[in-house]
UniProtKB/TrEMBL annotation:
Signal peptide (UniProt feature, chain positions): none
Protein name according to UniProt: Glycoside hydrolase family 36 protein
PANTHER family in alphabetical order: ALPHA-GALACTOSIDASE C-RELATED, GLYCOSIDASE FAMILY 31
Molecular function per GO: hydrolase activity
Keyword Mitochondrion among UniProt keywords: no
InterPro entries in the cross-refs: Aldolase_TIM, Alpga-gal_N_sf, Alpha-glycosidase_related, GH, Glyco_hydro_36
Record carries keyword Hydrolase: yes
Domain of life: Bacteria
Pfam families assigned to the protein according to its UniProt record, in alphabetical order: Melibiase
Keywords: Glycosidase, Hydrolase
């Protein structure tokens, strides 16, 4: 054995022949998979199929040495492997921290041979010997526009057919897999999942940290489950990498969290702590200022001085601390702005006297101004599409990529970066803007082959250049706040969120559909980065306005709505909600999520999200109209739900409704049982509850 980690319950094993594998203690060698799986042209698999395991190079890799050291608070094991046939070497870096049961991995390949190798796939992390698939439940998340973060559960054995190996003696050719598609990293699925052992609650949770290609795979080897995490590959992402002698390639990172009990909830808690370690430090992550954004169900991309000034005044009265002018502020074209973006100059016809007057009004009402920007795209009618060189854009076969009226910048090119640097510096330095909502509204497909390599390699190169550009923006403007938006939540990954301060969770406009998204958001995003729309409206009832505000209170409030058209009582309700959030927000950055009613279902009538902190526990409880039901009162039996909060049992806490200030609902805490009973007599209705001993 080379290495073991007691808290994680994994070990690195070395065979007499020099093979190296990562697995659970006690697992049989044959149930494990090689520490690195590599497919190269001319060196495929030893057992053909959809799986990424059983690669010829992976089977040949042999241990050449290893090193234990410590860097930036992480304990590192670096294992060096060589393939004697091709000369390909791999350094597998496994990083852990004493206080957190997480294993982070990445792999560096180097061609130490004499002949170029075209790499078609390489794993970032492999783990075998988990146990019989019949003993596990699998949890994964579907993720689509307006319907993000939809968690599903099924027995692992339903996904991995039980094949009778007694006759043929072979493992199957298939597996359970999820992967990205194109340049929206989370369009379709999230790059994370959980495997839970029935009975014990022991769980393995994982995430792949890539904004471009990623894949995870669960399969069966010698009647035991295995897991493989990786970045882009040839079959799914049009990615391959030609390594000439002496050249290197490093995979995207991936992480594995292991908890001995507590199931997915405990695993998500560990991932939450891990994500906080990954992030770039920023004051916003502690202050959690309230953001008003004029877009959602309000101006919808059609701002002007006339429309904005009343909203600015109303948002300031409500207690907002940032005011973001969303899409359309640059639209000075009768043909529309969608395919003309790129120069990012304010539209004169929208802002008589200049946009600066509006930005000054935002500051005069005590708020920091922000603007929407979609930096990676250039409209086909934009002058920037003609002024930048061809090589500054994505291309395929010498033709510039065009998608939904836009071209895509390639940030590996200095002219593309210089253009965006000039835009950002002008807006920040000259206009005094302190917040950018960086959106991303096209899927550019597999990437660009402008550099002569594969499209997927071009996309990965752009992705890494994009992250470096974001870092450079914050280096120059350390107080600037960056929101990561990809048509809502279609680029919701911790490559982006290690740099950006906030994540847009959805573009969902129906307030009754938002609760399952808001409730599930902490599975993928730390609460203090989770931006949830709260769009109260003058035509809403008080219950409805309180409902939309409640949905954002255990994350980041993205306030919107026609606050300027509300009655005085309605405006007071919004201001009360914002004040309630400000009273609790200092507690949120240290909390861990839990779900007393289970992970939310898309059509659930009752939903609950909890955040557990050192001094207090917070719960948001929603009641929606039953599917196909009309809003209104419910029979007495349907008005109540009891939520188990066992970690507070017997501690003498009491329950306080922190929002709304006036409600027809009620809460009752049973300290002996550790249960909170919530009564919500109407639908829709929601409450935010604080449980604490003080």
């Amino acid at each position: 054995m080379l290495w073991s980690h007691e808290a994680l319950g994994v070990q690195v094993l070395l065979s007499e022949g020099g093979g190296v594998r990562l697995g659970a203690p006690g697992a049989e060698w044959d149930s494990l998979v090689p520490l690195v799986e590599v497919v190269a042209t001319g060196h495929g698999r030893e057992w053909s199929g959809e799986r990424s395991v059983d690669s010829a190079i992976g089977a040949r890799m042999r241990h050449q040495g290893h090193l234990l050291d410590r860097q930036d608070g992480w304990d590192r094991l670096r294992v060096r492997l060589d393939d004697p046939l091709t000369g390909l070497s791999a350094e597998v870096e496994l990083s852990t921290r004493a206080e957190l049961p997480v294993l982070r991995s990445r792999v560096r390949l180097r061609n130490d041979g004499t002949t170029a190798l075209r790499i078609e796939s390489v794993s970032t992390l492999t783990l075998g010997g988990l146990g019989a698939p019949a003993d596990f439940d699998l949890h994964w998340a579907d993720n689509d526009w307006l319907a993000e973060l939809r968690w599903r559960q099924a027995p692992l054995r339903e996904q991995l057919v039980d094949l009778d190996r007694s006759a043929g003696g072979h493992d199957g050719r298939g597996c359970f897999e999820r992967s990205s598609r194109g340049s929206w990293s989370t369009a379709g699925s999230l790059p994370l999942g959980v495997l839970t052992e029935r009975g014990t609650g022991r769980s393995w949770a994982w995430q792949v940290e890539s904004s471009v290609g990623w894949r995870y795979e669960l399969g069966e080897r010698r009647r035991s489950a295995y897991l493989v995490l990786g970045g882009p590959d040839d079959a799914r992402h049009h990615w391959s990498c030609l390594l000439a002698p002496g050249e290197e390639f490093t995979t995207v990172p991936a992480a594995l969290a292991v908890v001995p009990s507590g199931g997915p909830e405990a695993a998500f808690g560990v991932l939450t702590g891990y994500r906080r370690l990954l992030r770039r430090p920023h004051p916003d992550l502690d202050a959690l200022p309230v953001i008003y954004n004029d877009y959602m169900n309000t101006l919808m991309g059609d701002p002007s001085s006339e429309r904005l000034l009343p909203l600015i005044e109303a948002a300031g009265r409500a207690g907002a601390e940032y005011f973001v002018i969303d899409a359309g502020w640059y639209d000075d074209d009768a043909l529309g702005w969608w395919d003309s973006v790129g120069a990012w100059e304010a539209a004169e016809r929208r802002f008589p006297g200049g946009l600066q007057l509006v930005l000054d009004a935002i500051r005069a009402h005590g708020m920091v101004p922000g603007l929407w920007l979609e930096p990676e795209v250039v409209g086909v009618r934009s002058p920037i599409a003609r002024s930048l060189p061809e090589e500054a854009f994505f291309q395929r076969g010498g033709v510039r990529v065009t998608e939904h009226g836009r071209h895509h910048l390639d940030l590996r090119h200095p002219a593309a970066r210089a253009h965006l640097d000039a835009v950002v510096d002008r807006i920040v330095d000259d206009w005094g803007v302190g917040y950018f909502k960086f959106d991303y509204n096209i899927n550019a497909g597999p990437g660009t082959d402008v550099d002569g390599q594969s499209p997927g390699a071009g996309l990965l190169g752009h992705h890494r250049a994009h992250l470096a550009w974001l870092e450079s923006v914050l280096d120059r403007h350390p107080g600037l706040v960056l929101e990561n938006c990809g048509s809502g939540g279609l680029r919701m990954d911790y490559a982006q969120l290690a740099v950006a301060q906030l994540q847009s969770t959805s573009d969902q406009e129906n307030f009754l559909c938002y609760p399952p998204i808001a409730a599930a958001a902490p599975t993928a995003v730390t609460p203090e980065q989770s931006a949830v729309w709260a769009y109260p409206q003058p035509e809403f009832s008080d219950d409805e306005n309180a409902f939309v505000l409640a949905g954002a209170m255990l994350g980041r409030i993205h306030l919107s709505g026609f606050l300027d058209r509300m009655t005085g009582d309605q405006q007071a309700l919004v201001a009360e909600g914002v004040a309630a959030y400000k009273a609790i927000r200092a507690d949120l950055p240290g909390t861990l999520p839990f779900w007393p009613l289970g992970l939310p279902g898309w059509e659930d009538e009752w939903l609950a999200l909890g955040l557990r902190g050192d001094g207090a526990t917070y719960l948001t409880v929603w009641r929606r109209p039953a599917p196909d039901g009309a809003p209104g009162s419910a029979p007495q039996a349907a008005r109540h739900r009891t939520l188990a909060v066992p970690h507070l049992s017997g501690l003498g806490v009491h329950a306080q409704v922190v929002h709304p200030a006036a409600t027809a609902g009620s809460v009752h805490w049973d300290d002996e049982l550790g249960e909170l009973t919530v009564e919500l007599p109407h639908a829709p209705q929601a409450v935010v509850v604080r449980l604490a001993a003080d």
